[in-house]
Design brief:
single chain; mainly alpha
Length: 198
């Protein structure tokens, strides 16, 4: 969206400034979230590498500790802790991906903004009305979300921006009376002359 497109829509400079300011807030918010996601992804890679390094170290210790039952038991316990940490971490990652995709989807669902142009209140309200158990993340899409949003658009329409109806131009008003201005002469002067010869 740029100023030229808005001008083509017939908006005034003042209206364009307001739209651009509101749009800027939304874009900046999305950029901040994207930066956080990028940071989290690099942390994820670091953690995965740390867990892989620990697994390797434990395997090496296990080989060295053969015959020492106490040490072997400690290594097995550490392996179990590593597995638990890894599965908890993967669950957190899945939840973060789900939350990020959900927020992105809801942000583009034409929710009603508050007077400052923020979606906070509408986002919280929509999330509280959604049945999260039936929404599943499949790659980049959330299965089951669209059906629920369509239902909410009907049952909780106050949370969504109303689409403006296409305005039809006003009808042309014709003053009553003789459209020729009260003259008794025919509209076509040649027709009158021809009438004389007929």
């Amino acid at each position: 969206m740029n100023r030229e497109e808005l001008k083509e829509l017939g908006l005034t400079d003042e209206q364009i400034d307001k739209v651009m300011a509101s749009h800027g807030k939304v874009v900046n918010s999305i950029k901040e979230k994207a930066d956080k996601v990028d940071g989290l992804e690099s942390q994820i890679e670091d953690y995965k590498q740390q867990i892989a390094d620990r697994d390797t170290q434990l395997e090496e210790l296990g080989e060295k500790a053969k015959g020492n039952e106490e040490l072997t038991a400690q290594i097995d316990e550490l392996k179990q802790q590593n597995e638990t940490t890894k599965s908890e971490y993967e669950q957190k990652l899945e939840q973060q991906a789900f939350d990020h995709t959900l927020e992105k989807s809801l942000t583009s669902a034409n929710l009603k903004k508050d007077k400052d142009g923020n979606l906070g209140t509408s986002l919280k309200a929509i999330k509280s009305l959604l049945d999260m158990d039936t929404i599943k993340l499949d790659g980049e899409t959330l299965k089951g979300l669209d059906d629920q949003l369509n239902g909410l658009k009907e049952n909780a329409s106050y949370l969504f921006e109303q689409e403006e109806q296409q305005q039809t131009p006003p009808p042309t008003i014709v003053n009553p009376g003789n459209p020729n201005g009260g003259s008794n002469e025919p509209a076509d002067p040649f027709a009158a002359k021809l009438a004389k010869y007929n």
